[in-house]
Amino acid sequence: MTGFAFPARFSRGPIDEDTDGHYQADLVAASGGRFFVTRAVCRHMWDRDYGRIVDVSSSAFLGMRSSAGYPAAKGAAWGLTRNLAHRAASENQDIEVNCVRPAAAA
Predict the structure, then answer these.
(1) What InterPro entries has UniProt attached to this entry (predicted)?
(2) For the whole model, what pTM was predicted?
(3) Residue 95 to residue 88: CA distance in whole angstroms
């Protein structure tokens, strides 16, 4: 199993107070690494016709008051997972792709 983490701050404020640069930085920080690492790993999985990917998203993709970029990036994680799962299924490969979405509740 391979994983990576990144320290980032996403509390930028509501969308009408956010800047283009902050939004883009949030997307890159929360989604860019996921894309590049997954792409690199997938190439080997497709060559071997076998692999397992478990991605982690967040219930934040449903929206949050403090940031626009972070929920957008978490939604991108879900979309990337679905894209990979559809490709693996359409090519009848033994590659499984899942995305877990933990949520905190009180």
Answers:
(1) NAD(P)-bd_dom_sf (IPR036291), Peroxisomal_Beta-Oxidation (IPR051687), Sc_DH/Rdtase_CS (IPR020904), SDR_fam (IPR002347)
(2) 0.72
(3) 6
- How far apart CA 57 and CA 88 sit, in angstroms, is 20
Q: Is 66 in contact with 15 (CB distance < 8 Å)? A: no
Q: Calculate the alpha carbon distances from 52 to 38, 41, 64, 81, 95 in Å.
A: 11, 10, 30, 11, 6
Helix (H, G, I), strand (E, B) or coil at 84: helix
**Do residues 60 and 77 lie in contact, with contact meaning Cβ atoms separated by under 8 Å?**
no
Query: pLDDT over 90 for what percent of the chain?
Result: 19
For 32-61, how does the pLDDT look when each residue is reduced to its tens digit (9 = 90+)?
888 888 899 988 999 999 999 998 887 777
Reported as type and span, the H/E element at residue 75 is helix 69-90
